[in-house]
């Protein structure tokens, strides 16, 4: 149970980092901002669909959080954080 709590807390912290990095990119404007905005929406839709499918097939909450953390860490890396 502690691992799920810790992983969820880390997901929240990492997500805040992605939000900050994305806001800077969006504030800069231009083609890169437009691309990021589209990517952000499509990533969220894909992640939600994947989570729903995983839950339907019996994935645990820990599995769902682990997948979201993987995605968020990839965004931190891609955005230069």
Q: Topology of this structure?
A:
Elements: H1 2-28, H2 30-56, H3 61-79
Helix pairs in contact: 1-2, 1-3, 2-3
Question: In summary, what is this structure?
Answer:
By secondary structure, the protein is mainly alpha-helical.
Task: Explain what you see.
The protein is mainly α and 81 residues long. 90% of the residues lie in helices and 0% in strands. The chain has helices spanning 2-28, 30-56, 61-79. The N and C termini lie far apart (29 Å). The protein has one domain (16-79).
Characteristic terms for this protein:
single chain; 81 residues; mainly alpha; 90% helix
Sheet with most strands: none
**Total domain count:** 1
**Strand coverage percent:** under 5%
Radius of gyration: 14 Å
Amino- and carboxy-terminal Cα gap: 29 Å
The residue ranges in which pLDDT falls below 50 over 5 or more consecutive positions are none
Q: Sketch the topology as an H/E string, one letter per element.
A: HHH
Tertiary shape: flat
Please tally the helical runs, counting DSSP H or I stretches of 4 or more residues.
Answer: 3
What's the oligomerization state? single chain
Helix residue percentage:
over 70%
Query: How many beta-strand elements?
Result: 0
Instruction: Summarize model confidence as the mean pLDDT.
Output: 96
Helices and strands: which structural class? Answer: mainly alpha
């Amino acid at each position: 149970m502690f691992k799920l709590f810790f992983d969820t807390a880390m997901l929240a912290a990492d997500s805040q980092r992605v939000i900050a990095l994305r806001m800077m990119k969006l504030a800069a404007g231009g083609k890169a901002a437009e691309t990021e905005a589209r990517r952000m929406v499509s990533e969220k839709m894909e992640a939600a669909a994947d989570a729903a499918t995983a839950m339907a097939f019996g994935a645990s909450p820990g599995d769902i959080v682990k997948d979201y953390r993987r995605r968020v860490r990839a965004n931190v890396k891609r955005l230069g954080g």
